[in-house]
Design a protein that fits this description.
This protein has helices spanning about 1-35, 40-65, 80-105, 115-140, 145-175, 180-205, 215-225, 260-275, 295-305, 340-355, and strands at about 230-240, 245-255, 280-290, 310-320, 325-335, 360-365. The chain is α/β, with parallel strands linked by helices and about 375 residues long. Helix 10 links the parallel strand 5 and strand 6 (about 360-365). Helix 2 runs antiparallel to helix 5. It starts with a helix and ends in a 5-residue tail after the last strand. The relative contact order is 0.10.
Length: about 375
Amino acid sequence: MIFMERGKKIIQISIIGIAANLVLAAFKASVGAVTGSVAVIMDAVNNLSDALSSVITIVGTKLAGKAPDKKHPYGYGQIEYISSVTIAGIILIAGLTSLRESFIKILSPEAARYTVLSLVIIAVAAAVKFLLGRYIKSAGKKYNSESLTASGTDAVFDSVISLSTLAAAVVSMLWRISIEGYLGVVIAVIILKSGVEILMDSLSGLIGARVDSELSLNLKKHLCEYPKVLGAYDLTLHRYGPEKIIGSVHVELPDDMTAREIHGLTRSITEDVYLNYGIVLTVGIYASNTADGLFAEMKSKLSEFAAARPEILQMHGFYADTEKMLVSFDLIIDFKSERKAEIRDSLIGQMKQLYPEYNFVVILDSDFSD
């Protein structure tokens, strides 16, 4: 239901964008044809590309809202990123077209013929496009839509471009100097830069960019507020589109808890996280030794050795089994380190010197959330 409401809003805003861009394109094309201004004509073409972008946003949102099925059990949310990539491609094509036409204008300059009315139309169009861009971009952030945000950002740039066109028109009228071609090159570069940025952001989402660290930190803090939860580790979150996050986490619990108690706690955590964060979370557990003495001493020594190595970001999941004479724990080592295995083996060596009768099993984790 939430996704359907969100999709409905995105489609409504996109329709507004289509209507506004078509009207603006018509006005600018008329002014460009009358004045002979290549910059104004390219600006009109850019408005048409924006209208097409809104159409793609609508189609992408509709497809992304399809229910999960056997072939795609996590839904179709990733299509929104594909829509953004397509929009970026349209923007890049528009930029390259503008660049080609601008060079033609530089090589074969022709003075544009502006009137006061045409200047007023350009100024009004710039103001409308700026307000439209701010509105669409704000809506994109509100509804977490990459496509809307991309369209809104592009529209704000377009308003700046229109103002530049207006400035060129004034220069042409006052001093009879044609800077249309050079201005067109500047416009094309701005369009291309915007297209590349949108493309990179969208591809990052498709590849699987790290979920916002603030969300991860807040979620782990929230989990640690539960009674008997001694720590939250190994939090991994995967996006399947802007609005669907699936993940897993380990919580550290005292080893004297019963299966019934653990089941009740993990079930409560799962439901709570879904209701408050909209995240489907699988909860695993680490058992923490409740007995003091040797185990506390071993954990203290291990923490001391780990703290002496700046590459080790965290040690967690410590547990000692006296029957199997086995100690297990996880290490998070900095992504930048190229000595992960060496650091792990050295740490095991230090512990073996103090506790030769025990074997040590170490899992190297990745730092996904901090």
